[in-house]
Specification:
Layout (H helix, E strand, L loop, with lengths): L1 H44 L4 H23 L15 E6 L2 H14 L4 E6 L3 E6 L6 E7 L3 E8 L10 H14 L7
Antiparallel strand pairs: 1-5, 2-3, 3-4, 4-5
Helix pairs in contact: 1-2, 3-4
Length: 183
């Protein structure tokens, strides 16, 4: 009975800490987005009405963040460090076949608009042409790890409705999928 109580208490504390960390991330993003939204409010309402511009800036930043919160909360496996961020990273243990597969995917098999921008022995960079912020995927090979990282080239602090995270997960699935022996 005590073991069950201790387990439930541990799970409760972990959930509380995770929710507290998410709340801190939401507040940080609101603080970062408010000046940007205020700038856009001044542009659209003019510099004559400071109260109206501030009101619209608060509404715009809150809407932008909370729309993203609902998208990010759909992924239970998402780490707190990746929550409301547009840069994400996954690592693989180094294997020459995995590295060759990544090189092949980046060179030939990307199913979205992409351009190979850098290609070296231990480093590959692909620029995606999906939107204005231009996400970039980099693959880096080290002695024991392969690191895939996606981030925006510009405005890296803006949340992206998990778009970069989903792209990275699709790449991870392609890399982990064994080759089709019938083709």
């Amino acid at each position: 009975m005590h073991a069950l109580r201790d387990t439930l208490l541990t799970v409760s504390v972990r959930c509380h800490n995770k929710m507290q960390n998410k709340a801190v991330k939401v507040l940080r993003k609101l603080v970062v987005m408010l000046p940007i939204a205020l700038l856009f409010s001044f542009i659209f309402t003019g510099l004559t009405s400071y109260g109206t511009a501030l009101f619209f800036a608060i509404i715009l930043s809150v809407l932008l963040i909370f729309v993203n919160v609902f998208d990010y909360d759909r992924y239970d496996e998402l780490k707190i460090a990746d929550y409301l961020e547009s840069k994400h990273e996954i690592t693989f243990n180094f294997d020459p076949t995995v590295w060759a597969k990544i090189r092949n995917i980046f060179s030939n098999q990307l199913d979205f608009h992409a351009k190979l921008t850098d290609d070296h022995e231990d480093f590959i960079k692909v620029s995606l042409h999906s939107n204005l912020l231009k996400p970039e995927i980099t693959a880096t090979r080290a002695a024991d790890k392969i690191r895939l990282r996606i981030e925006y080239r510009y405005l890296k602090f803006i949340p992206d409705n998990t778009r970069n995270y989903r792209t990275l997960k699709r790449l991870e699935k392609k890399i982990k999928t064994p080759p089709d022996i019938h083709s």
